[in-house]
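On clarity, I found the account of how folds are encoded harder to follow than it need be. Since the whole study asks how a given chain folds, the encoding of that fold should be made plain. For the editor and my fellow referees, an illustration may be useful. An entry of this sort, consisting of the sequence and the corresponding backbone structure tokens, reads as follows:

:::
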Amino acid sequence: FEDRLTFHIECSPSLYHALILPLAIQPLLENAVRYGMEEMTDTCEIGLLVSRQDTLLTVEVSNEGSYFEEVAHGFGIGLVNIHQRIQMLFGEDYGLSFKNQGEKAIAVIHVPYKTEE
């Protein structure tokens, strides 16, 4: 995408060893690139933000240029799979959610903070 795409990661070094489900972030990044680049004629910004609050680990994947509709018409099998796997492992308090913030669409993963299996 040459100069049409910028990508940044914001993650404290203290979270480098936090555990996350395999293949949970990759489909979100793919979707961010796909839908963000689809609508943008200028540079599209994709972001990955990892944060922790007490025992909760949050991973946010954001992109400019697209948005999540208030009433979803269905998500792809990859997104449903991520949400279901998280809830099966950790319970209904965790999972995958979506929000819009300004010009950004943001997919949010919530899982318990753990550093060892």
